[in-house]
Design goal:
Length: 438
């Protein structure tokens, strides 16, 4: 049967040629549309490395100097002490399990980002390895533990991370598994050294993969414990309070009680108007503000439009082809072919057309990938920019194959369904009726 189908396609090559051209164009368009959808969806499917349920960010506001409510007698040191008092008030809430004071760029999906370059030596030579990394900072005293608050665990054992006493000296740091793998080639790097801004640090521990943005890949991350909060006139911009609730606490009831009873107590000194934001809301806001949601909506709309065009075009084309071949179908039925045999023959024809068009279209797609620079990702860029070839999104060949596979499955599925509709209608006719009309 397969050989007969090939002869049939060749004999009708003029009609099939138009279908091939249509499918080739659709293949190229669909690939460019599906590519960002696959990448963003793949990024979001990666575990974030932290827990969001029951986690909150408390953004502290302060009166400006020209505000009539601003109290000039409150010194920077007093305002720093007020920050610690506020943290203590929240920590003593019966619903709160853990609290940490962090920098405003040191919690996931925040709008800030802070980074630096890590090196293996202070000398800038060919042997010195470099890696771009993001860093978090948190206040470690008074029981502060960023890892416990966020639900981040050790990379190897999966256990909770405790902060050793010797981390208070400011010469030790924790690194993510992404950073350890990219910088050292292994995640077992406790005790190893690195330099940042010329200062040496020792790795105190390694935590799991961590995503600062929900729609991005894990990026090399360093976490620095800090034993001091320095007084500052703008301390409300320099530090943020994050905390988590105890298991089983009703989040809505807590938020209501917090705004009514706790928030007024936090307006101490020049602090005012604390805003409570959950981690889940932070994730949603980050997606909206970054434009990722709108981008996905546009790409989904384009992909849906392309698939609808394929469906309508293939359905119309095969409807005409099936009508023109009603006599052939009637003859097949009169010679003993079942309805299933007729559908199978036409579906194989459609599958062959889609496959040939897809392979030809991939040539144009490959040219697009090369000219756009997507295939130009040398190993040096992974070392210096923090990109990780552990993920298929950063491996050109794997990236190309994954997206192409998704496009082929979608293209074949829509084409086969659009072929099955007219074929099934004509195959249900009695052979005598089809031959009499001929």
């Amino acid at each position: 049967m397969f050989q007969n189908i090939l002869h049939q396609l060749w004999n009708q090559r003029r009609q099939n040629g138009w279908i091939l051209l249509e499918l080739i164009a659709v293949t190229f368009f669909l690939w460019t549309v599906i590519d960002p959808v696959c990448v963003l969806t793949g990024n979001r499917l990666i575990a974030p490395g932290f827990e969001s349920e029951g986690r909150y960010v408390l953004t502290l506001e302060a009166y400006e100097l020209n505000d009539v409510r601003y109290r000039k007698e409150v010194t920077d040191t007093a305002q720093r002490d007020n920050l610690l008092r506020i943290a203590g008030l929240i920590r003593r809430c019966p619903e709160v399990a853990d609290l940490t004071i962090v920098r405003p760029y040191s919690f996931p999906n925040c709008m800030s980002w802070s980074g630096n370059t890590l090196t293996t030596d202070t000398l800038d030579n060919a042997q010195t390895r470099k890696l771009s990394a993001q860093y978090y900072e948190f206040y470690v005293r008074d029981g502060g533990n960023l890892f416990r608050t966020y639900g981040v665990r050790e990379a190897i054992t999966g256990r909770d991370i405790e902060i050793p006493e010797d981390c208070l000296n400011g010469d030790k740091a924790f690194v993510s598994a992404t950073l350890a793998r990219r910088f050292y080639g292994t995640t077992d790097v406790r005790g190893k050294k690195f330099f940042m801004s010329g200062k040496p640090y020792e790795v105190a521990g390694v935590f799991g993969e961590f995503k600062h943005r929900d729609y991005r890949l894990p990026f090399p991350l360093v976490v620095f414990p800090m034993s001091e909060i320095k007084p500052s006139s703008y301390i409300n911009w320099q530090w943020t309070v994050v905390f988590r609730l105890k298991d089983g606490v009703d989040a809505r009831a807590f938020e209501k009680r917090f705004r009514e009873e706790v928030a007024p107590q936090l307006q101490i000194g020049n602090f005012c108007y604390p805003e409570l934001i959950s981690f889940n809301r932070q994730i949603r806001d980050a997606l909206e503000n970054s434009g990722t949601v709108n981008k996905l909506r546009v790409q989904y709309a384009l992909a849906g439009f392309a698939l609808l065009c394929i469906f309508l075009g293939m359905t119309g084309t095969f409807w005409v082809r099936c009508d023109a071949r009603r006599g052939e179908i009637g003859l097949m039925r009169s010679l003993g072919a079942t309805k299933r045999d007729v559908r199978k023959r036409f579906l194989v024809e459609a599958w062959l057309l889609v496959t040939v068009a897809f392979l030809i279209g991939l040539v144009a797609v490959a040219q697009y990938v090369v000219t756009s620079g997507m295939a130009d990702l040398p190993e040096e860029s992974f070392r210096s920019d923090g990109l990780d070839t552990f993920y298929w999104q950063n491996r050109p060949l794997a990236h190309f194959l994954v997206v192409s596979s998704v496009v082929y499955v979608l293209l074949a599925a829509v084409s086969l369904v659009s072929t099955l509709i007219p074929v099934s209608r004509i195959a249900r006719e009695e052979p005598a009726d089809a031959l009499r009309d001929e």
